[in-house]
Design brief:
It is built from 8 helices and 10 strands. It has helices at 27-39, 76-89, 103-115, 127-141, 157-171, 191-208, 238-242, 253-260, and strands at residues 2-4, 65-70, 94-98, 146-149, 175-179, 211-217, 245-251, 272-279, 287-293, 298-300.
């Protein structure tokens, strides 16, 4: 894993897209590409979500933008961290630009997800040896496939676009995560700014043939047990309109409240939902029940499911 320090890299050269003249091509070029696509439909790898139940319904296509929306503390960053690990497992190159969490803290959570257990309470060996071993495994697993943009707080939309373009061109990054939209556009009611930023991201994804993952918040609902939909996304409706895919991340607060009150709850009741509210280039818009495995901080797709072993090594 590597870090991109904004003070060490001049991103100014990547603020603008390539010359428009390079985008004007004769129709035959696209016909050739289309023919190849039709004749060889499985030539490119299918990039999937971590959960088997989603594999027939959804895949990450290059040139698209996926939005993950949910409430504060709803699990958006945890889910996208797990998705990032699964992308690396599929030999994709990932950069995470979190303006809400330092890379070290993000890595701590990902290390826990990667190990499949609570790294602060190792079960099978002394803690020092365990941490050294699991860090070495994650370092090997993510070698030249995981970058972090080390910048917290608010940042300009232009700077984010420049960083993403730099990562695509110079590092070969294929998946760029932005956490979150509201750190890139000042003001919840700056609808023009939001629309312009999303438009830039969509253009960048198409131009560089990468996938951009964008985390965003929803409005405060009537109560925290309510189930959101894409119309609850904060800001302009153009956000959901412009992106290619929309996932709502919902945490089952009702179950949590019942457990906190000491009531018995059916363990098969889901802890969360990943709800596909839009998939422009796919046929399915399904909802997926997930269960939270506390020690690993992973979401699993069965109530008694085991955490994913990302590097296919036995757990300690």
């Amino acid at each position: 894993m590597q870090f991109l320090d904004p003070d060490d890299i001049d991103f100014s050269a990547y603020l603008k897209a390539t010359d428009s003249a390079q985008k004007v091509k004769e129709a035959g070029v696209y016909l050739t590409e289309l023919m190849d696509e039709v004749l060889n439909p499985n030539k490119d790898p299918i990039i999937q979500l971590p959960w088997a139940k989603t594999h027939q319904d959804f895949s990450f296509r290059p040139g698209e933008v996926t939005l993950y929306a949910g409430s504060n503390g709803g699990g958006k960053s945890l889910i996208t961290g797990q998705i990032a690990l699964h992308l690396i497992r599929q030999h994709q190159k990932v950069c995470i630009a979190s303006f809400e969490m330092k890379p070290k803290r993000s890595l701590e959570r990902m290390l826990r997800q990667f190990s499949g257990e609570n790294i602060h309470k190792p079960r099978y060996m002394d803690k020092n040896k365990y941490i050294e071993e699991i860090v070495t495994r994650l370092r090997t697993f993510s070698n030249k496939c995981l970058w972090f943009y080390d910048q917290q707080g608010t940042v300009s939309a232009d700077q984010v676009v420049a960083v993403a373009r730099y990562c695509a061109i110079k590092l070969g990054v294929t998946h760029f995560f932005i956490d979150s939209l509201m750190k890139c556009v000042q003001g919840e009611d700056d609808y023009n700014g939001q629309k312009s930023f999303i438009d830039e991201l969509c253009s960048l994804a198409r131009d560089q043939n990468i996938h951009i993952h964008l985390i965003h918040h929803i409005r405060k609902l009537s109560n925290e047990e309510a189930t959101p939909n894409k119309h609850d996304i904060k800001g302009t409706g153009a956000i959901a309109d412009q992106v290619d895919n929309v996932f709502m991340v919902w945490r089952n607060k009702k179950k949590e409240h019942q457990l906190s009150a000491g009531n018995s709850v059916d363990p098969q009741t889901n802890d969360a939902m990943l709800m596909c509210e839009k998939q422009r280039n796919g046929e399915s818009e399904d909802w997926y029940s997930l269960w939270f495995h506390k020690d690993s901080q992973q979401f699993v797709d069965q109530w008694d499911g085991a955490p994913i072993s990302f590097d296919n090594q036995p757990r300690f």
